[in-house]
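Everyone, carefully examine this protein record:
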Amino acid sequence: MHEALERYGPPVYVRRQIVHNKHVVAALQDRGAVFVDEVGQVPEGAVTVFSAHGVAPAVRIEAVGRSLQTIDATCPLVTKVHNEARRLARDGCDIVLIGQPGHDEVIGTTGQAPQHIHLVTTPDDVARLRVRDPARVAWLSQTTLSVDETAAVVEKLRQRFAALLDPPSDDICYAAQNRQVAVKRIAGDCELVLVVGSASSHNSGRLVQVAIAAGAGAAYLVDAAADIEPRWLRGVSTVGVTSGASAPESAVRGVLAWLAEHDFSDLREVRSAQEHQRFAPPRELRRPAAAR
C-alpha cells in the first residue's frame, strides 16, 4: 500500500480496510489513502487497491466497468483458498466453508462459487447442511480462524460425510497459527495476557479466547498502550504480551514501554516459531508505472 502511494501519489482508493487494524488504516489515511466500502464509490479511472482479504469476481467485473486501475493486494494464502474453491466447484463438489459470517474474506471466498459454497461457523451448524451429493463434499476455511475451532467443525463434518475431501494444504494463516501456539505456551504462567490488535481483527480477538482457554488468569484486547487499565495489573506478577497478525510493531513496542514504566521491566521473549516467509508485492507494482 505504501508502494502504491509512492508510485501513484494520493489519492489511492482502497476497497475496505487493507488489514483489520485501525492504526495501519489511520497511517495510510494520513498519507492520502481513501477507504471505501464498494468500488462504486471510487471515481472512474482512479487507482484502487483490493484489500488483503480478497474480493469476489463480481467486484473485479465492476472495477473493469468503471475503468479502475486496480492493484490486487489479496494475501496469497487467501488467493490459494479462492483457487481451491473454483477448482472444487468445477469438479461438482459442494464446499463447506468454515468462517465468520460477514467477514470480508468469507464474502470474497463465497463469491468464487456461490452456488456451491455453504458457510458454517460452529460444529452445530453441520447438522443443518443440505448438499446435493454426500459423497462429493469438501471443506475449506477462513485463513484467520483458530486451528482448534476449525478442527472441531471438521470432526463433525467427517462424522456426517465419510468421503469428505480435505484441502490440498492447510488454509490457516501461518502468522495466526504461530501466535496461537505461542499464546498456549505462555498463558498458563501469566496472570494477565495482553493481545495487541483491533476489535475488527478476528485473529486478534481469537487470541484472547485462546489465552483464557490455555490458563491465563485474564486476557484483554488492546489497540495501544492507552487502552490498558491499570487495575488489570493489581495482584499480577507476570504479564504475557502478544499481537494479532496485522498489528504494527510500533503498537507492541508501545505496550511494552508502558509495562516497563509500571514496574514490568523484566522482558523475556518466548519464540515458538521462526517466520521466514516473504510475499512479493502485487504484480501491478512490479510493472513500470503507467502515466496518470
Observations:
- The chain has three domains: 2-75, 77-160, 174-261.
